[in-house]
Amino acid sequence: MSRRDEDGPSSGSIVVSQGEPAGIGPEIAVKAWAALSGEIAGRPLRLIGSSDVYRRAAQLAGLDTGRIAEAIIDTGHECRAEAGVPSPQNAAGVTAAIAEGVRACLAGEAAALVTAPIQKSVLTEAGFGFPGHTEYLAALTGRERAVMMLASSETEPPLRVVPFTVHMPLQEIFRHLRVDAIAATAEVVIAALSHDFGCAKPRLAIAGLNPHAGEDGTMGREDLEIIAPVVAKLRTQGHVVLGPLPPDTMFHDAARATYDAALCMYHDQALIPLKTLAFWSGVNVTLGLPIVRTSPDHGTALDIAGRGVANEASMIAAIRMAAEIATRRGL
After folding, report:
1. 175 & 222 share domain
2. Which of 222, 290, 323, 331 has a CA that sits 20 to 30 A from residue 177's CA?
3. Which of 113, 132, 103, 146 is nearest to 13 (CA)?
4. Per-residue pLDDT at 5
């Protein structure tokens, strides 16, 4: 029997944080809640954030505000948001919803956290101090290394990609490429493939940095001198690792059938194939945390906020994946 109090989540529930109130996050959250009838795989869905924000989103979507109100865990932060116009004044409410979701998961009061998109530029203006969700979640859970994976269970074969460097200018990537750091990220990914995705013998593909994976050093030596040693190191530990692979030929169907996840060297190298092949079913999963966290694989979409046309498919996919991982973890 799941534990529940009047205002908080139950121990098996999935909690969803509101994200940027001026974006589409609250809208897709209430739409997903309604599409799933307030539960997923027998787990209650709860909405964390500002009651007013969620009620306005429900009204915009033409949903029953009374039913949705019963699912809201109000953080007590008022958010006065104009659609499409984010304000630093709402930053405290945005981060409070995330922090409350993390707290509930760590305390065993919820099984997983799903986060709606945040507007990083506005949070930074308000003094947030983190590049994004991943780093903030690592800090909240006391972990030094959290890894961002983008995944879709709706492609065949399943598509899972991990960018080693994330929100970083291209010119800075080279100085961050170190054998030990890439290997440590790879180990987090391999462990997650086993524990969270049910891969009995995880197979990891590692992308090269340069065109043709450097072509024996003629197009750059990073693949020979940094990435190849990572592959060798992981293989000596007994892991099944492919690479360094030419990035332009590793994402077609036949290539993807040979591995369970791809570790890429920079943001777009990973996200372009994911968003091309699985735009509406892509999910952001944070690996290496003591809690389960997923998110839709898109941003705040300020240009369509307030129009009631936001597509909740990726949010639903994120909720489904959170529930699946929570079940595999026995939560």
Report:
1. yes
2. 290
3. 113
4. 42
Tally of domains in the chain:
2
- Beta strand residue intervals within the chain, DSSP E: 14-17, 39-40, 43-49, 72-74, 112-115, 147-152, 159-163, 203-207, 240-245, 261-264, 283-287, 293-296
Cβ neighbours of residue 237 closer than 8 Å, sequence gap 6 or more? none
- How would you class 141 by CB atoms within 10 Å of its CB: exposed for 0-12, middle for 13-18, buried for 19 or more? middle
- At 221-264, the pLDDT tens digits run 999 999 999 999 999 999 999 999 999 999 999 999 999 999 99
Tokens 């909240």 label which residue? 140
Q: What is the distance between the alpha carbons of residues 48 and 199, in angstroms, rounded to a whole number?
A: 32
Distance between CA 65 and CA 211 in Å, rounded?
53
Supply the range of the domain harboring residue 2: 1-145+289-331
Report residue 329 CA to chain centroid gap.
17
Q: Burial level of 69, CB count in 10 A (0-12/13-18/19+)?
A: middle
SS3 62: coil
329 CB contacts (<8 Å, ≥6 apart)?
195, 196, 292
